[in-house]
Amino acid sequence: MAEIYITGHRNPDMDSICSAIAYADLKNLIDPANTYIPVRCSHMGESMQMLLETLGIEKPVYLRNACPKVADVMLPYDMKIQADLSLSEYARLVTESTPSALPVFDGEEFCGLLSVDDIAVWAMKNLADRGTIREIPCVRELMGEQGERLQADSLFEEGKNAFLNSRFRGLSVFREDEFVGYVTRRCFLNTPAYNVILVDHNEMGQSIKGVETANVLEIIDHHRLNAMKTTMPLFVDAEPLGSTCTIVYQLFLRNGIRPARETARVLLTGILSDTLILKSPTTTQIDVESAAALAAMCQTSVDEYGKKMFSNIRGLKSREPVSAITGDFKLYSEKGLRVGIGQCEVTTLHDLNEFAGEYLNALETVKTREGLDWALLMITDVITEHSILLSTDFYAEKHLPYSLKSEHVFDMPKVMSRKKQLLPEVLNALY
Ligand SMILES: [Mn+2]
Predict the structure, then answer these.
(1) Could you tell me the distance, in angstroms and rounded to a whole number, from the CA of residue 291 to the centre of ligand 1?
(2) What is the 274 CA–ligand 1 centroid distance (Å)?
(3) Are residues 151 and 293 in the same domain?
(4) Same domain, yes or no, for 49 and 75?
(5) Helix/strand/coil for 391
(6) Range of the domain at 24
(7) 267-304 tens-digit pLDDT
């Protein structure tokens, strides 16, 4: 029985969140031998959180990184050795498989670790002094100096280094101030790896931190392929459809499983969000048919549900610019340059002049903070199917094929898709 984490990209959008939830549901149904857990690998924007709440979709748990932790290798303490136990009683409990250090308690309170070294030191000292061992001490009297405390969520590598630099057999592990387990050198012989499935992305730079240390078991995606090298064979389902949720729905069908109503609603949310209610040019016939079928399962229509979703969008004027920009922000590395493109949906662009200046400044802040060469923000009016592009000062903006409305502000009529329409032009502009 293994735990397998399903994650969308960083700064997750609706499609990332919803496809992770729905795919975990499908995998748990078709592979009950393992446990599939949907996660998000970074914080969600404020408007995303609000929308999830409004729609009654529970947000996936936050998994900070996919790096192995001390907690993944620590030993539980099923045997509670009491400090007043005599060494002879203790000796009767020890078997060949007893770890080289054991935690000692005074009642419920953790006292420290007793290691075989402590016992050997005591025995040697007695033999050297008296030539024999007369009195049998209790465990408390034997315990020697304690090594440093490790934290359960520290990285495996940090724990390993702690051992490399110490003379101790065992180190105790705490979560905050609570003793939760302990580790011996043996725990660090093999490096464990997290099992992950990537949905709605395939680029390492967009994935959960530490993905390079994980076993990537599957990739389910609808973006350009710039996938990482893997050490094991894997299942990849990459299709040029409007949303990853559409692919996940197709996987339900291929497995002959009808999604439960709650899952159908999650899938519909992802599809309508990523395709901007099926209006984005990324929309395919399969997206249209899938959305219609899912809407029917939820006893709603695509239009009704889409309007409900987008009616919650707040205008950019009332939002904090940096968090609005980074809420849905993607990083691309091309020709040695780092480019970031944010996308915001709005229901009107009439107030553009009132917020453009503030957002251009915020875009410079984001560029500096993320160490980028170029930062862009695409603002899409989902009602009129029209976008505006804001750009930081960068040579390549002159190569963009869009008309300039004002300095660093471009007009992009009919451009709805960052991935399919804007990204190729941005990459082209980098010559
Ligand atoms: Mn997507």
Answers:
(1) 15
(2) 6
(3) no
(4) no
(5) strand
(6) 3-67+193-310
(7) 999 999 999 999 998 999 999 999 999 999 999 999 99
